[in-house]
Amino acid sequence: MNRIYATRNGHTVIDEMEASTDIYKIISVDIDNGSAGYYQSNKKSSGGTIALNCNDFNLSTLSHEIFHGYQDFYGQGGRSIVNEIEANLFAYSIAKEAGESTKQTNIFAITKGNEWDDCLNSYNKNVNTLYFSPTLNNDAFNYVRDEFHSYSSKNLRGSYNEYPLQQTNQGNRLISKFYPL
Ligand SMILES: [Zn+2]
């Protein structure tokens, strides 16, 4: 947690959340659901719990789940592909500044053998724009959102098939103020 707070973007998020009267808890439990962690909202915009499935020392997992808390804090909580993309981009920025591996925050597509695939290439081009542009590129974001189910390496096992692309309360791109990542 201290290492996240030491980064520019981590500092911003934690300060904003701590200044509110909402309560955010972090617990360590081992839930055999295959995920590294999850965020559970208390609903009614009143805080929530970040559960780390014994990944207490994993910077990327904690950053990812903190950002889900931040989305909830702004009334934009709930499962969706847009929230997953944002949480991964945020965790990327933290890991990068902290000098840790950004591997876990990678949403690029994996090339299947030497197969030439124009769609996969355009997906990766847009992901690249999201990670490396000085400001958030909305067209790239929407492209990645729409193709995430088909191409993201995060969905190789179909873990996100049930997630809608976006919910009605998720119109603002909260990640935009954290650029450049
Ligand atoms: Zn997530």
Which ligands occur here? zinc ion
CA-CA gap between termini: 19 Å
The major sheet is characterized as: 3 strands, mixed
* Total E-strand runs: 3
Name the quaternary structure: single chain
Structural class, from secondary structure content?
Answer: mainly alpha
Strand percentage: 5-15%
Give the mean pLDDT: 89
SSE order in H/E notation? HHEEEHHHH
Total helices: the number is 6
Shape: globular
User: How are the strands ordered across the major sheet?
Assistant: 1-3-2
Bin the helical content: 40-55%
Number of domains as seen in the coordinates: 1
| Uncertain ranges | none
**Radius of gyration (Å):** 16 Å
List the helices and strands and how they pair.
Layout: H1 2-5, H2 8-19, E1 23-28, E2 37-41, E3 47-52, H3 59-73, H4 81-98, H5 118-132, H6 138-151
Parallel strand pairs: 1-3
Antiparallel strand pairs: 2-3
Zinc ion binds next to helix 3 and helix 4.
Highlighted features:
single chain; 181 residues; mainly alpha; three-stranded mixed sheet; 6 helices; globular; binds zinc ion
